[in-house]
Amino acid sequence: MTYRFGIVGAGIIAEFHAKAIIAMTGAELVAIYSRRSEPAQTFAAKHKCTAYSDYQAFIDHQAMDIVTICTASGAHLEPIQRAAAAGKHIICEKPLEITTDRVDQMIKACNCNNVMLAGIFPRRFNAATNHLKQAVEDGRFGQINLADAYVKWWRTQDYYESGAWRGTWELDGGGALMNQSIHTIDLLLHIMGDVKTVRAETRLVAHQGIEVEDTAIAMLEFATGAMGVIQGSTACWSRDGHPAEVQITGSQGSVFMTDDKFRVWEFLNPQDGDQKIKRDFGWTAEIGGAGAADPTAIDYHWHQKNFEDVLLALKENRAPAIDGQEGRRSIALVNAIYRSAALNGEKLEVV
């Protein structure tokens, strides 16, 4: 079976989606929607699909099965509700929305119309992520005491000025945490489970004319009892960009996952496969950070794996790996961090 895709939005992220769709077996890109006709026409000519600047006409495109959403983060809800009402399955770029209330409305709309809602967190589909999650589930760390996420990235002032929505609470929903760091925050939750409480501080230190933070730090208490830290920033200059990192440490092991490689993979009780993992996934400084300084440098193959899981889920009549509830978790955590920061670091529960 071939699934036919339509894309909402014609920017950088839409390009990742188009490349992923075209690269897949059993997928075809048939339509693109943008509020402005010119970008839609340019995108359609490049990717050989039909352009629309009227959303209802786009939704009515014949034989379109799946809609992918690439608009500003705070503008996901309405197009998803309309697509769901038209019976289209939906793949929505991260974050699903900017508040848990809006995510809950999306989930309800999709459930009521019996269509799939899938989120985009491509780093979950890396082989390195699977190795780390399995090590946690196998108890190889002993008692995990610290689980941290570090995203020390750089974005220029021009980046924030490139779109009126960037750096606004209404449409971006936040700054370095909600937009850039949320991939690694989701990864931390995927590996470690839910966070129980947070204490946080956010600042704007290196950019002008935006409403949101470019630097944030949060202290976490996981439901397991482990502690952790999130550091997220777009104010850390680097020519090539610092890679994002997840660090898990316990009484019997330590792993530092650097993007999709391992800078550290050490356990008190070695296993036969450890040396192969270190050979296959060893990190070196020459690799650089994926999208850390340049958002166009992200490899679309990560999106492709995410999309392929959705197609397989449809064929198998099951939920995708990142359904609405999974996509909601990182938003709930980021929302709690922002609330704590607004209350001068008060310790708050994540709900």
Account of the protein in words:
This protein is of the alpha/beta class and 351 residues long. It has 2 domains: 3-122 and 300-322, Rossmann fold, CATH 3.40.50.720; 123-293 and 331-349, Dihydrodipicolinate Reductase, domain 2 (2-Layer Sandwich). 36% of the residues lie in helices and 23% in strands. The chain has 11 helices and 14 strands. The protein has helices spanning 12-23, 37-47, 55-59, 77-85, 100-112, 127-137, 157-161, 176-192, 274-281, 300-316, 324-342; strands at 3-8, 27-33, 50-52, 66-69, 89-92, 117-119, 144-152, 195-203, 215-222, 227-233, 245-250, 253-258, 261-267, 348-349. The strands form 2 sheets. It has an 8-stranded mixed beta sheet. Helix 5 links the parallel strand 5 and strand 6. Helix 4 (77-85) packs parallel to helix 5 and helix 6 (127-137) crosses helix 8 (176-192). The longest helix is centred in the last third of the chain and has 19 residues, at 324-342. The chain is globular, with a radius of gyration of 20 Å. The mean pLDDT is 96.
